Amino acid sequence: MKQTKTQQFPKTKLAWLWENMQGTRGIYIVGMLGTIVYNVLQLTVPYYSGKIVDIFLTGENARENMRTNSDLFYKLLIAMVGFTFLRTIIVYLDCMIYEHVSQTVLYRVRNYLYNKIERQDMTFYSTYRTGDLMTRVTGDLDAVRHMVAWVIRMVIESFSLFGAAAIFFLYINWKMALCLLVISPFVFWIIYLFKNKVAPMHALLREKLAQMNTYAQENISGNRVVKAFAREDYEIQKFDKANKDYAETNKATGMVWLKFYPYVESIANLMPVVMLAVGGVFLIRGQLTMGEYVAFSGLIWAIANPMRQMGNIMNEFQRFSAASQKVMEIYYSEPKIKDAKDAVAHPERFEGKIEFEDVSFQYEDGDLPVLHDINFTVEPNEIVAIMGETGCGKTSLIHLIPRFYEPTKGQIRIDGIPIGKLKLADLRKNIGLATQDVLLYSDTIEGNIAYGDSTINLDEVMKFAKYSAASDFISKMPEGYDTIVGERGVGLSGGQKQRISLARALAVKPSILILDDTTSAVDMETEKQIQQSLRELDFPCTKIIIAQRISTTKAADKILVLQDGYIREAGTHEELLAKKGYYYELVKLQTGAEEL
Ligand code: DGT
Ligand code: MG
């Protein structure tokens, strides 16, 4: 897995978030204003109740006022109820706005990420683990959504409440207000200390989650191996450990706040005490009316609660920060292998001439070169067989043709055009590839064969199945071509899967067909049948076939023998026999003959 060195991005996290709110920014601003409004409206109740107390309940002329000015009393009451009602409506609409915007952002970024992941090159897939990628598009992305839906709202709520209450306090009695507000900077300082402690915890927490998901994903998809080795208990324990690890880290993260919480809570609780003490003195001295005191005490929570909330907000903010780091890593990732800027379109079908000129190759994460100075040419319609012992570089070599990887040296040309100059889609459209590890989709057999070209009809699908000697076993299946194969082709034998994968490669009528050990699991008789049909295809096609059996290589126009990444021998069957080298020995071995 790619390790977490903090990567720099072209935008800050919040700027990135803002960019992805495009289309909903206007309504989001309305939502934020709404949050300010409904929080300021909270102050109206204490304001009016303070007025009612002063004018109609405690003032010198309270009784008189009630008799002569009952109109005002009712007006104040109605205003109180009216503003409360208005506030409820705004809160309701506001919630809808936040939900709408956050879901829109979630949808957009998720699609964007999926697009990115889908278009990545092979190196990306060997770097990132599936479970980790899944965590990014689910859990991490949800933390981003939470930022839009809740955290930002809480920040505005806290600050507007605190700000409005502070202004209101200063307005009614500035001396009393200052006595209360002077404590608040301490809270910010504590929150700052808390942030420094909790930020690395969230980064760790996020790694643990990815780890746990990776274990689960690998074990679910690799369950056959687990069963074969009876390792269920071991795997369950391994998951249990990851799960425990995650839970413990979660707890530890929660505990960080508990260290700071008592201080914040004490400061928040100090407010009513200061209020009582200072307010009492001010009342006695006549510097504060009873109504003003009621307004203050009715609103003291508007100063204390945002302080309490700050820890929670900072916690969530750090969660967003850790998660968005992971999301943005994929968001800004670029495949190394992509269309060149000066790539030429080549919509026509290729002739199928392939040239390798001094091609060397090494995997980015590998220590040693895998291929050295490979030179060969395949003419259109020829069959080339590649053989060589396991690990000698056969698969690596053919993977260079569709540009899964880039050679470290040399050039590969198709029809005389360097493949780096072709558009990837044009290049790959012309290639039919049956990979060494067969992967089928959980779909019908027909759907699997027609994967590369969904426009072909059942007759054609059947034709390609016949070419690949698959039609017999398919027609024996209860639902024939409509049979649904399980995930990765569960329900089929190795040889059956290989033949469906061959039919799938043929079904795009490629001008270049590449078969990587595609008949290794089929019997000799069936293989012979397949070789025969490959020579009789009803479309022109250059074939590169990796095979170990002499029966396959014998009929090739050219055989390349690879050894440790070098082409050791090249020529026709007869030429290579005459050389009495590796190939000759292999034929002797396979035929059991003493001499040839
Ligand atoms: P096979 O299929 O067992 O007959 O073997 P080949 O000839 O297809 O071997 P190949 O090309 O898969 O591997 C050649 C060497 O490259 C071998 O030492 C393993 C290494 N290799 C293969 N794939 C990767 C990869 O994705 N990353 C790294 N770093 N090395 C790889
Ligand atoms: Mg291979």
TrEMBL record:
PROSITE patterns: ABC_TM1F (PS50929), ABC_TRANSPORTER_1 (PS00211), ABC_TRANSPORTER_2 (PS50893). The keyword Transcription regulation does not apply. The chain crosses the membrane at residues 26-48, 72-93, 147-170, 177-194, 260-284. It is found in: Cell membrane. SMART domains: AAA. Residues 354-589 form the ABC transporter domain. Residues 29-319 form the ABC transmembrane type-1 domain. GO terms for cellular component: plasma membrane. CDD domains: ABC_6TM_YknU_like. The keyword Transmembrane applies. GO terms for molecular function: ABC-type oligopeptide transporter activity; ATP binding; ATP hydrolysis activity. It is a multi-pass membrane protein. PANTHER family: ATP-BINDING CASSETTE SUB-FAMILY B MEMBER 10, MITOCHONDRIAL, ATP-DEPENDENT PERMEASE MDL1, MITOCHONDRIAL. This is ABC transporter ATP-binding protein. The lineage of its organism: Bacteria, Bacillati, Bacillota, Clostridia, Lachnospirales.
